[in-house]
Design goal:
Elements (H helix, E strand, L loop, with lengths): L10 H4 L2 H18 L3 H17 L3 H9 L3 H14 L4 H21 L3 H12 L9 H33 L4 H25 L11
Length: 205
């Protein structure tokens, strides 16, 4: 879900990031309660679909967000069908799918920088107990930036391995990936120290 932001002018795009994050928490709590009843789960599904359509994203975008978790949804449905009532095999996977869809909807309609700013503002009151909001924001931004970087390393190493041997081996794949990731982390740490960001800093520039 990282880097999914799609610019737009819908009401969701115009909603402040803090309000969307708060709404996501409220919806998550409501989803946990609603999954106990088929009607509640159905209302939640309709609400998620309506959110995507009203944001101008459509069915295909929603389908792409749920594609990575389809195996989990099928497994959850099968386990609940065997261990519980049939309606649980519908409501629990539907709730999981809705939570994934809602989280993706927030990232699709909110720039990453706005989300980080909202989270930094949320932890600012914790400054009194030693939490540095700017450092939290920096960690979030670095985490977000490292996801595509790591994905790129995985793709390059996998392609290089297949080009050399014509097959994929997990054992031969893991070592180069770990080494490359450590090198990238060292380079990132050196860049941060060069810019005055270290463990002794009271804040971040």
């Amino acid at each position: 879900m990282i880097g999914l932001y799609q610019p737009g002018s819908s009401w969701l795009h115009r909603t402040p990031a803090a309000a969307k994050l708060f709404g996501l928490v409220v919806c998550a709590v409501a989803a946990v309660l609603a999954q106990r009843w088929p009607v509640g789960a159905g209302v939640l599904v309709i609400a998620v679909i309506a959110g995507y359509l009203s944001a101008g994203l459509g069915w295909r975008v929603l389908g792409r967000q749920l594609r990575p978790v389809w195996a989990l949804l099928v497994f959850t449905a099968a386990m609940n069908l065997l261990a519980h009532a049939w309606w649980r095999a519908l409501t629990l996977p539907a709730t999981i799918a809705c939570l994934v869809g809602l989280a993706a909807l927030v990232t699709l309609t909110t720039p990453t920088s706005a989300l980080v700013d909202a989270l930094v503002a949320a932890v600012t009151p914790l400054r009194r107990v030693g939490v540095h909001p700017q450092r939290v924001g920096l960690m979030l931004l670095l985490g977000v930036g490292c996801v595509p970087l790591l994905a790129g390393l995985v793709a390059r190493i996998r392609e290089a391995q297949i080009a050399r041997s014509g097959s994929f081996s997990l054992g031969a794949f893991a070592a180069p990936l770990v080494i490359a990731a450590i090198r990238q982390a060292d380079a990132l740490g050196e860049a941060l120290v060069a810019r005055g960001v270290d463990d002794e800093a009271e804040g971040t520039p």
